[in-house]
Amino acid sequence: MTDEEYMRQAIALSAAAAEHGNEPFGAVLVKDGEVVCTNENQIYTMHDPSFHGETGLIRKFCGETGITDLHEYTMYSSCEPCFMCSGAMVWTKLGRLVYAASNIDLEKILGKEGCNCSKIVFDHSFWQPEVTAGVLRADSLKVLDAYFSNKSKG
């Protein structure tokens, strides 16, 4: 499968998260061409503001498998990970991150300036995953814009 095919799954999870009453973010973890774990944002349904798509996926996958070193894995995220999620990727030594919309894109929808959260975290950490940005960006922006056009963040 290609980056675009995995990203379609992450974006579909983001849409599902919104349908389930959460904010529209989704993540897919892949190793050797196989999806090994998926997760959607669950901050409202789990009553946990840290249960973002990416950190929730890391918690779930590491808890179920006992694997805490993800240097051989790629994570596909519907939107650039926040500071917290980027930090979790550093601590688990994620090998590669692929994301669709950037945090700057998201913040623009919210009427704010934003920043490249993952770049800031990775550039100042002991571990830097390989990063590919902007894969199916427009598709992700449609989901984000549809949700946040009438809702605020948090």
From TrEMBL:
Pfam families: dCMP_cyt_deam_1
UniProt KW keywords: Metal-binding, Zinc
Recorded superkingdom: Bacteria
Coiled-coil region: none
InterPro entries in alphabetical order: APOBEC/CMP_deaminase_Zn-bd, CMP_dCMP_dom, Cytidine_deaminase-like
PROSITE patterns, per database record: CYT_DCMP_DEAMINASES_1, CYT_DCMP_DEAMINASES_2
Keyword Phosphoprotein attached: no
Domain CMP/dCMP-type deaminase: 1-113
Protein name in the entry: CMP/dCMP-type deaminase domain-containing protein
Organism per entry: Lactobacillus nasalidis
